[in-house]
Amino acid sequence: MMHGPLSDRTTAPAAATSSGLVAALEYALALCNRVILVFAALALIGACGVLSFSVIARALFQSPNYWQDEAAVFLLVGATFMTAAYVQQQRGHIGIEAFVGLLSPRANRIRLWLVDLASFAFCVFFAWKSWTLAYEAWDDGQVSNSMWSPPLDIPYGLMAVGMTLLCAQILLQLIAPIAGASRR
Description:
Elements: H1 20-61, H2 68-82, H3 84-89, H4 105-140, H5 153-178
Helix pairs in contact: 1-2, 1-5, 2-5, 4-5
């Protein structure tokens, strides 16, 4: 199950009506997420195209492609991590809702806030490690162990940026109730 919108939050544009700064940040991040969503969709289509081309080239021309797997993985890593903030914005991540019916609405809001706090702590650590991996790959000139040898700072960088955007999204969801806004 997923968290889904809470009953006190009906529309996304009314996210933080009482706090101008939080509302502006949420709007900016939502706009960024929508732009990334378009590029992620194109990346998924690109990965499908690359893998389909590989299958056809092998079947028809007995021509091995040594780059297609990594290209598809890079595209999928980018699409997955870069859209994580959008999924969090929609509360689309998987959540266990065993106690929702047993708790009062106030207790559920507190529970959700605590879950967001724990998620934020984990994501900050993950983002930090992703940035260190990206920097080390860039600084050392690390490449994959294939004939194509693409630089590894590309997928690590996509992971780092995606996790940083996810941290920003969770942080906005954490501070919205404190700033006096309704939360989703």
